[in-house]
Amino acid sequence: MDEAGIEYWVDSGTLLGVYRNKGLIPHDIDADVGLTQAGFEKIRQTKLNIPENYELFVNNSPHYRNGPFDFLPGRFADKRTGLYVDLFEFLPLQNTIQVSKNKTFKFEVSGGQANEYRNGNTTLLMHTDKDATVYMEMEVVEEEVIEQLAPVASVAWWACTKCPEYRHFIVPKDWIYPLQRCPFDGKEVWCPAKQKEYLVMLYGDNFMEPQNPNDR
């Protein structure tokens, strides 16, 4: 994909292998790759030069056969060994959250009378003998829009430990970008920017401990 100018990052178990072993997890038979919607659309519309004995499956493409599952938009398979790479399309999302912040406010207060100031649902009444400038630090709650990326919810994410929704892997965009180069079996691949946070959401706080003794 590097040669075709298609942006990607290693995902799921492949990212776990990169983080723990700088390569595939031992005995793993597949790899996982994430792409943005724009990157995946480029694959759909581009007829790539696929080596003999390999096949690229891409759903809803004029150039490739549909893959085995509706929820999995792409798969690159070695027809000789059965090894394959699953391609996940990450769609853009937005989430509005409530964020508490400390802010300093400046008030010009007229002496000898009640001064009322409103900030959202908060009302302040101030009384001073003389004209004064008052600075006050207050905790305020503001709405903040978080840019996110997520594949469609599916059984592919059944093992996600801390997904915000059932079988729906959703991450802030800044967990992925800017992409980082990572060592992988003597080569380099693209990885998400915040790999630890990414892996904790997928596999929990103990993601560094192999669950299968054969993976040690």
Automatic annotation (TrEMBL):
Protein's recorded name: LicD/FKTN/FKRP nucleotidyltransferase domain-containing protein
Annotated source species: Thraustotheca clavata
A Pfam family this chain is assigned to: LicD
Domain of life per record: Eukaryota
InterPro entries tied to this protein: LicD/FKTN/FKRP_NTP_transf (IPR007074), LPS_cholinephosphotransferase (IPR052942)
GO BP: any one term: glycoprotein metabolic process
Annotated ranges, domain LicD/FKTN/FKRP nucleotidyltransferase: 3-204
